[in-house]
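Suppose you are handed a protein chain with no further information: no name, no annotation, nothing but its sequence. What can you learn? This example shows the usual starting point.
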Amino acid sequence: MELERIPVDIDHCSKTYADGTRGLQPTSLHVEPGEVLALLGPSGCGKTTLLRLIAGLETLDAGGRILFGDQDVTHRPVEQRGVGMVFQSYALFPQMSVAANIGYGLRIRGASAAEERRAVGELVELTRLTGLESKRPGELSGGQRQRV
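A reasonable first move is to predict its three-dimensional structure. Written in structure tokens, the prediction is:
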């Protein structure tokens, strides 16, 4: 499965929580196709909030827009955005094997079993997890869990 590289545009996105707390000041950002970007700043400045808005895990305040290429995804549900995140707390399914955790995103998107096996094999090799495919997260070191 070849992924298309497209620009990402964040246009005046902000987040205010129900209690009035401002989680993200209005922010605009353009990311070129294939560009690698790091968000740096002190705790509480909105880095994670911005990423959660892009992924669709949070709703942004009125007036902002998120574009993937020429598609406005501002109101598109999380499962239709095709965004993956590595969470600080790993967010692994403890009852699932390494291979099942890695393949989960493809499986819920309807990839064939063969495509899932191919992608999981490639990622296991890339992340140096070969031989651990049948292990559960509780059987792995912290670094191994992070790579899963």
